[in-house]
Design brief:
homodimer; 399 residues; alpha+beta; Creatine Amidinohydrolase, Chain A, domain 1; Creatine Amidinohydrolase; 6-stranded mixed sheet; 5-stranded antiparallel sheet; 9 helices; 31% helix; elongated
Chain lengths: 399, 399
């Protein structure tokens, strides 16, 4: 039988976790936190390499204790402590000789108010600090191991995109096209699950948007909308037959190993309109520029400004990042979660760092035609961006 | 073009929303809340019939105002107010002649600590109460419209299960079998997205567990575990070839219209072991008993006790609800979310009410063989349970 959890972390990940948690501990010292209690899935996975129900307690000296509620009875490592509930943590810390923290960081941006109030009572004398921004910041810069996982993910992702042209059949609906693509994703090893940050973000395995549906504004903070097929998930493909003249934007997810890549390509049904083609090539021109200019030390907002300047030069402002409704970002951090920080907006004052990973997606919506533009996932390298979703970017004709 | 949101609620749902929100307003009066601000997806959908980014403000008199952040510019109804951020709500309420609430209910069990702190500053003079239990309670008892949606969902769900026997091919892995089933689900109209309560619960479109993998304990609060294929999602199918002698439990999701049904059937590869067969039939015997005994006014825990008594009579305690790790519940409420309340545990003192919807899933794990048992989704009627996922329950041989 396969075991889900024999060790936390797995023996082959011990060194990796030491590296990651060392970085987190450094940031804790800078932020004045004595300890940090991690309780939510993306951060648990970051801090342990596996999902379990429980907590990671980290001291500013970099010592980690893994408190496991579920599964029970399968852990042998010395720093793994089985508990039934968080109220048992302080006594166990005492037993391990760890002195009570004066300031403890909790994930205030992710955990529910009720959960935080419960933890506050678990540590009644501690000052509670918000550890969410700190953890988001640490996760922005990937370790070599994480970059390898993302590259591996990108290879699977590209392997699926290679098959998309062949999946199209005349008079297909957008949903039928998406189902065919999803089947290839799953067959390639996609987990069939998309880890997205924020309870207000919901999506299935991605977005396939054809024709006019690109201009249907959605409630979610994705770059593109789409009406969806149900008011319960108003997003993406709407179930209509894709018509000659439509562009079809495929932005389906890579999530093959717990890390993710994000990737968009566009196909046309018949010859694309000159405006759609111009906008699509403008997106590629923006990416080529950003690939050169995005280096460690550059302000994130500068990427947005560079993109905007190119769009203005080509007179395509009315269509950039939407037409009836505009997205305010052209990219985002990515890793364990699809939508990590930083968001690439006009106002983001953060500076790029080496080994940050970014998805960049300058897109356009052409009314009556559809969405166009390219998205790749990149690693920030000393001399620019490394594309880890390399695949032909030209708009191919599906007919 | 399809529009995502022209009206909130849609004209055909106005009466339905009046009914739902009238019930919520009644509960608010009983709980001493003057107003309630809904901000999370499942409750937004419940209160409006559509997903949007924003808030529903409800007074104890039953007046609802829909504050919409996204999408922008598409709402024409009189009680829909566009805002950019929640800080704009109090002034808009004043403009509408709604007096400030002394006590306001917020979703403390679902919204993040940071979001609640922000809303607290929006309503600085109000006492904040936890509206999560109130809303969970109201959503337990479905309206006739909601039951119709769930029955419709159940019909699609059953249509997919009808095809499962034909999808099996010799030497398939459990993942390949699941992918084939998912493809049928999506082709039948499944949204490809599963709304689950709680950020610690993660799953793709469901669980296909074959053989020994049923005994791999998982981190999540699902009834069954399974190792999964990745430590990033340690749950369900593990990628191994299904072998003669295995049982294969299929617990994949119905979510075709924003409401959900939950349904499990089991197949065997070759002849099942006598113990597996006995346990499977015991599950069916439990369901037949509960279908008769579960009536309005009966304590939820009584369902658990009835099941336990039957299991003890048949001497199957060691396998009930798991073998190495046991789940503490045999069913759960269901509707907009897969895992609603009440949880059917030994300790749940709540009483059944007419038109509650429950998924009941007495299951067993037989070591070396696999999981067995049946799950149906039911409506509580005056004289017992109505099964809305009717489909043959016998363990069929896939060979």
């Amino acid at each position: 039988m396969k075991e889900t959890l024999e060790y936390i972390p797995a023996p082959e990940l011990r060194q990796e976790m030491t590296l990651r948690l060392g970085r987190v501990a450094e940031a804790m010292t800078a932020a004045g936190m004595d300890a940090l209690l991690i309780a939510t899935n993306a951060n648990l996975y970051y801090a342990s390499g596996i999902l379990f129900r429980g907590y990671v307690y980290l001291t500013r000296e970099g010592r980690a204790v893994y408190f496991v509620i579920r599964p029970a009875g399968v852990h042998t490592a010395a720093d793994v402590v089985e508990i039934r509930k968080p109220e048992m943590i302080p006594a166990e810390l005492g037993r391990l000789g760890i002195t009570p923290a004066a300031t403890i960081g909790l994930e205030l941006d992710v955990q529910s108010y009720s959960d935080i109030e419960r933890l506050r009572r678990v540590f009644p004398t501690a000052t509670i600090a918000n550890a969410s921004p700190l953890l988001r910041g640490c996760r922005q810069v990937k370790t070599p191991y994480e970059i390898d996982r993302m590259k591996e993910d990108g290879q699977h992702h590209v392997a699926v995109y290679r098959k998309i042209q062949r999946l199209y059949k005349r008079d297909m609906t957008d949903v039928e096209f998406q189902i065919a693509i999803e089947h290839e994703l799953r067959s390639e090893g996609n987990l069939g699950f998309l880890r997205v940050a924020g309870q207000l973000m919901e999506i299935n395995l991605g977005s396939v948007i054809a024709g006019d549906n690109a201009d249907a504004p959605g409630p979610y903070d994705f770059t593109m909308g789409g009406a969806g097929v149900s008011p319960a998930l108003p997003c993406g493909a709407c179930g209509e037959i894709m018509r000659v003249g439509d562009t079809v934007m495929v932005d389906v997810n890579g999530c093959f190993n717990g890390y993710q890549t994000d990737m968009t390509r566009v196909w046309s049904i018949g010859e694309p309109s000159p405006l759609a083609l111009k906008a699509h090539e403008c997106s590629r021109r923006i990416l080529r520029t950003l690939e050169k200019e995005a280096k460690p030390g550059v302000e994130v907002a500068e990427l947005y400004r560079l993109a905007e300047a190119i769009v203005a030069e080509e007179g395509l402002e009315a269509y950039f990042m939407g037409h009836r409704q505009h997205a305010s970002f052209i990219g985002h951090g990515i890793g364990i979660e699809l939508n990590e920080t930083p968001a690439v907006t006009a106002r983001c004052r953060e500076l790029l760092k080496e080994n940050m990973t970014l998805a960049l997606e300058p897109k356009f919506v052409i009314p009556g035609v559809g969405a166009v533009g390219v998205e790749n996932t990149y690693v920030v390298r000393p001399d620019g961006l490394e594309n880890i979703t390399p695949f032909a970017e030209e708009m191919e004709n599906l007919l």
